Amino acid sequence: xxxxxxxxxxxxxxxxxxxxxxxxxxxxxxxxxxxxxxxxxxxxxxxxxxxxxxxxxxxxxxxxxxxxxxxxxxxxxxxxxxxxxxxxxxxxxxxxxxxxxxxxxxxxxxxxxxxxxxxxxxxxxxxxxxxxxxxxxxxxxxxxxxxxxxxxxxxxxxxxxxxxxxxxxxxxxxxxxxxxxxxxxxxxxxxxxxxxxxxxxxxxxxxxxxxxxxxxxxxxxxxxxxxxxxxxxxxxxxxxxxxxxxxxxxxxxxxxxxxxxxxxxxxxxxxxxxxxxxxxxxxxxxxxxxx
Amino acid sequence: xxxxxxxxxxxxxxxxxxxxxxxxxxxxxxxxxxxxxxxxxxxxxxxxxxxxxxxxxxxxxxxxxxxxxxxxxxxxxxxxxxxxxxxxxxxxxxxxxxxxxxxxxxxxxxxxxxxxxxxxxxxxxxxxxxxxxxxxxxxxxxxxxxxxxxxxxxxxxxxxxxxxxxxxxxxxxxxxxxxxxxxxxxxxxxxxxxxxxxxxxxxxxxxxxxxxxxxxxxxxxxxxxxxxxxxxxxxxxxxxxxxxxxxxxxxxxxxxxxxxxxxxxxxxxxxxxxxxxxxxxxxxxxxxxxxxxxxxxxxxxxxxxxxxxxxxxxxxxxxxxxxxxxxxxxxxxxxxxxxxxxxxxxxxxxxxxxxxxxxxxxxxxxxxxxxxxxxxxxxxxxxxxxxxxxxxxxxxxxxxxxxxxxxxxxxxxxxxxxxxxxxxxxxxxxxxxxxxxxxxxxxxxxxxxxxxx
Lengths: 291, 453
Hints:
Chain B: InterPro entries: PIGA_GPI_anchor_biosynthesis. The complex is a heterodimer of chains A (291) and B (453). Chain A is mostly helical.
């Protein structure tokens, strides 16, 4: 052919319409342009948040079983919850030191104290109602319902860690997740025999599913050894208190946890070799606007 | 090429308006002018557009009673279209189907069924798609399935061709050494065109004011965020510039807010929805056409503006860089600062009188016209008729290449389709079908009009 082929439409070219110049076709195709490969150990470290969350769920469920079978005195559970609350609040304060100003923190503290007293009283007055809430429902439905709700909770929970000085952005899914867990604990609590046990369990569930995830966000800032140690402690506690209840469940639980923490990251790292992200001039551009 | 009979199949056709609709109509009209017989098959429209209608010039349109699900596209049903299509193709003596637009399930079904009647198939892709969201992944697989067995594919721009080849998996194993993949040679690029006479430039008003025109749907994909960010800056920098914004859409409210916030009511005129007939009269009021699209397969609006004598500023996206020579258009990257720079450049070119609207119009007349599009499309049809037709066994083998899951599913659909076709042959024998014997006769029509008067 006489003339050079050009990638333009306005010029009538000598080449036929299906002409393709070797080499020029798809020359602007980019493969895996923004691809940052994961490595194994950082992913394991990130999966700690999931391990912690699943451990919390199992601790909660075994506490419930103990309460139901009268292995555990509700008074003890209330005291444990209160201790957990103060320990958690202390670490929250320690982690928050870098954040907002002194005045702001003082206001926050007052607010926290007010709302914790409010929740404490509200739960106490509500527990007789909650105890008889599902009296007409059979226990089988309750087990199925709470299992589903805990599943939803674990699936939708926000496992991300906040960056330094960043605000926690409450996403819809994390709110849904918390609601699912609280509903699960309410329906479980309605199977318990006395008001104090109901109160203790709901108080514990507020600690485990409303306050702990917020603390976990902050823990993302801690050095990794601390996070690993904390995860190990939670895992050990959950194994210990599940172990004395049922062997089979403990084995399954331990297998799931090890799979989530060690196997799943390995699968993710392995699967990256199949990654084939293609970008080209046809992609919708992202407008860059100042401000 | 000998006259033949062609059926255009698409979900997008008149009475809707848009790029694909216009393309199908114009292409059909020009093919008819070249002596072919063309019919259009599309779905029905509410409230009463069902059945057979005629459009000038003797274009017969079949509106099939299918209900569109979203933005005028029908549900991909794979089999339900066959009874209609078989009857129409037989009674109209169709030799080739030409389906349009990758979101048109009717078009894909047409490609799937046509081989049963020995009818050849051509597909035109009008849009660009990404690869990374769920909707694209699904529609791309759907398209790859039907394009495995199509005889030729036409794209509207070179960028569009690259995109379609990747999406539709239009490559074959080549025998070169080392063995690799090569693009099928039945993939063509034929641009859109326009009717230049409809976009006659008018002499610019003798004043210092430069009007920047923005026309189009006001949606995210058209880059309205960029417009909202840049318009106040441009107004501030160039006191003799005013904006004329036409169109409707969810982003209109952003533009109104911007105008309010920067007190630019006297500088930015907002026209609201614009009818296609009024486009020219709006375009000729301006000197610069600004397009901030984030993706564009061909950019017919840009071409219309350039044809009406406007200097064009556009973002460098999709197929836009291919459609005009460099001295008629200024490009910007899709970021605020660069768009401002490009608009500044354009204003300078226009104030210096370096852009001649009449010359631009004459040039575009030579670049694009529907007759040449029809001739080039005819060449594709001719190549299709020359190529050997695929056997069913080969079709099945090719369909199996689609993948571990999609392959068997599509092959099953293909086989069931054949069985369904055999059933229809028994149930509605060809002999009983009412063939079309009388075609449109223009002179007879004129005679009748005379008599009626």
